[in-house]
Automatic annotation (TrEMBL):
Compartments, as annotated in UniProt: Membrane
InterPro entries named among the record's database cross-references: NCS1 (IPR012681), Pur-cyt_permease (IPR001248), Uracil/uridine/allantoin_perm (IPR045225)
Keyword terms: Membrane, Transmembrane, Transmembrane helix
Transmembrane segments annotated in the record for this chain: 94-114, 126-146, 183-205, 225-243, 255-274, 294-313, 325-347, 380-400, 421-439, 451-470, 500-522, 528-548
Disordered, as annotated region: 590-609
Membrane topology according to the record: Multi-pass membrane protein
Family according to the record: Belongs to the purine-cytosine permease (2.A.39) family.
Gene Ontology terms for molecular function: nucleobase transmembrane transporter activity
Lineage, top ranks: Eukaryota, Fungi, Dikarya, Ascomycota, Pezizomycotina
Principal location: membrane
Any GO CC annotation of this UniProt entry: plasma membrane
Organism: Fonsecaea erecta
Domain of life according to the entry: Eukaryota
Protein's name according to its UniProt entry: NCS1 family nucleobase:cation symporter-1
Amino acid sequence: MRSPPQHAAIELEDLATSPSERLLRWGAAEPLLSPSDSRVGSPPETTTAPGFVKSRAARLLSKLRTESEPGLTNAQLMLTNHDLRPVEAQRRQWTAWSFVAFWIADAFNINTWMIASTMLTSGLAWWHALICILIGYSISAMLVCLTGRIGATYHISFPVVSRASFGIWGSLWPVFNRAAMACVWYGVQAWIGGQCITLMIRSIWPSFYTLHNSIPHSGTNTRDFVGFFIFWVASLPAIWLPVHKIRYLFVVKSYFVPVAGLSLFAWAVGRAHGMGPIVTKPATASGSTLAREWLVGIMSAIANFATVIVNNPDFSRFARTPRDAFWTQFFTIPIGFVVTSFVGIVVSSSSKVIYGTAIWNPLDLLSQFLLDDATSAERFGVFIIALAFALAQLGTNIAANSVSAGTDMAALLPKYLNIRRGGYICAIVGLCMCPWNLLKSSNHFTTYLSAYSVFLSSIAGVIICDYYLVRKGYYSLRNLYSARAGSPYYYHLGISWRAYTSYICGVLINIVGFAGAIGAKVPIGANYIYRVDFFAGFLVSSIVYYLLCWLKPVPATSSVWCEKGDEADNRFSVINPLLGEGLDEEMSTEITRTDGRAGSEKVMEDEDK
């Protein structure tokens, strides 16, 4: 067995010394701060140009700095702030029922109805579509639980989780990827929410439907843009809420929105005097075409969840225990989305009886109700249902998009950005990206989703393989915030070549097929692979990563299952290793696991004693 490095030997000696002596020894081995800055709370020394400190720009930058542990160096300020630290016990307020409410509320959104309709228009029978949705969201739920357990155990967010596998600085690219996807989804969901606002206004003032279009060359019209902008502005106060308090929004949403959706279901079935012809119509596709559409349907369901799969630690880190974030998500996700899709299919089928054509978008159906000389009672019903859908879009945008993008941006520039500021940047990007262009064609939107899920699937493959197969649940928590060259997650210049090699392999396996999906002529085999794009990217990246770690092992691993989540307490300190419960365990575990299997077994024996 290799002899431990110099700082490891010093740390092992620390276990038999007093706390004050251990602090001195730690600083002598590899200090995180210079000797003059070793006191916790003292600001780091910086050099600035003469006169700059007194300038207006310097004062502005000083005011914009986020809350962080005092005494951090510039490198440490690039790795942590209050929103990136492990969640302390006081903010771990999400119970099992919080996650149930979260997913029930999230399932009843308009995008779920649109995903199901795409499958039926491709030639599947209604029950084929439901099975595809069940399979797709069950797979998604399993992956969500795998990533969510990491956050629920160590109480850290996705940007910090990704540092273990991609490296301290290498994690910035996956974080940027996920932030970009969240911004795109924010704009899309805000646009759909704006259509809800438009319906609410029309139910009060029917003349709003014929509002003059003063922006004819924009790709949209004044009426719809006004609704979108009102929804966008109304969402801004919700971004201000702390993440651990958002659960109250979902409790309200989980009661109000499903009731409104079921009311629309009953209303449509009542007017059609039944569930319509779609539920009795057989599949129009057959043979290999039918099999292909099954795969496309399953993949579209998973692609719809690609962002949530990697960002689940952003929410699960607020769970009281890992159990609270596991079984509730595992069962609630597929059940909730299947029920919502079934309601959407039946409502669309009923609309074919009422209007002679199937109306897949529930907002279009509500709009048609208003065009049929609706009574005041019917207009009131449209207003309430549209309000419920607007609330659904608001909750989805805040939880799945603005919080995720805010967390990622806080990791990209933690010195000046936190979750709240990042959320507002996400909202601005969502406004500027003109999301109505993405929703002009369901085929274009599905192709876009599949394309970006390729990148996210490769990220998820590396992270899940690293945590469950390579490290077996062990993280050295404090080193996830350390940019020291000797840190186990620093790798080479802060970047893990194993993770990036695996990530690129996962992307390349699908890149040719993606070219074929947008019209290029490619080999038929590439098209077959691209039909299972998420699986291909996930499996290839995870297998390559595992093989590379087997050929050249990474440090800080365990040969037996060993999660050390109890180290994430409210006294966690980036600077001072003595300010944390279970410190001696963390030191001993980290060092021995760096040296391989024998050390791991020794630590487990010591802990058993």
